[in-house]
Amino acid sequence: MKATGVVRRIDDLGRVVIPKEIRRTMRIRNGEPLEIYVDREGEVILKKYAPISELSNYAQEYADSLNEALGLAVCIADHDEIIAVSGIAKKDLLRKGLSSELEEVVSSKKSILINHDHSLDNDGRISVKNSAASPIIVNNEAIGAVIITSKDQTNLGDLEKKLADTAASFLAKQMGAKS
């Protein structure tokens, strides 16, 4: 584990402040839930809580099914990283951060069609031509997104957008059933 060189004291209420540099690096936002673990050596581990990651196997099966039916690439993401990929090399996208354009889909809670060259990941390595993206919303909170995309000139339209909406709604219902 990397040492950060930052020391914080626990206050009277048992709270500790996570330094701004670490929050920025780890993309931890105000009000975002964290999981707390204690490992065998007694170290306390804070991990960003991503509720949709509980459904990652299920999300992968759904992405595979959509890919088979449409012949288009499908990605399913939590609020800031891709957790399921089908139709594009998984090693290139799995666990990569979302591009800022796709992060905006999640935060805006609105489905969109993107009909220009854009990146799926925050590194800008995976460029695609068109995408239909729909946020996964549980209890009025956006927890991820379903992205149907094309690397070629295939135009995506209302059908792909509705399929992304349907997939997002279905995964949201599954998340609601788990809580």
Automatic annotation (TrEMBL):
Q: Which PROSITE patterns match?
A: SPOVT_ABRB (PS51740)
Gene3D superfamilies recorded: 2.10.260.10, 3.30.450.40
Q: Does the keyword Translocase apply?
A: no
Q: What UniProt keywords are attached to this protein's entry?
A: Activator, DNA-binding, Repressor, Sporulation, Transcription, Transcription regulation
- GO: which molecular function terms? DNA binding; identical protein binding
The organism is: Desulfotruncus arcticus DSM 17038
Q: Which Pfam families match?
A: MazE_antitoxin, SpoVT_C
Q: What protein name is recorded for this chain? A: AbrB family transcriptional regulator, stage V sporulation protein T
SpoVT-AbrB domain ranges (all copies):
5-51
One GO-annotated biological process of the protein = sporulation resulting in formation of a cellular spore
InterPro entries in alphabetical order: B_subtilis_Trans_State_Reg (IPR052731), GAF-like_dom_sf (IPR029016), SpoVT (IPR014213), SpoVT-AbrB_dom (IPR007159), SpoVT-AbrB_sf (IPR037914)
Look up the domain of life of the source. Answer: Bacteria
Record's keyword annotation contains Transcription regulation: yes
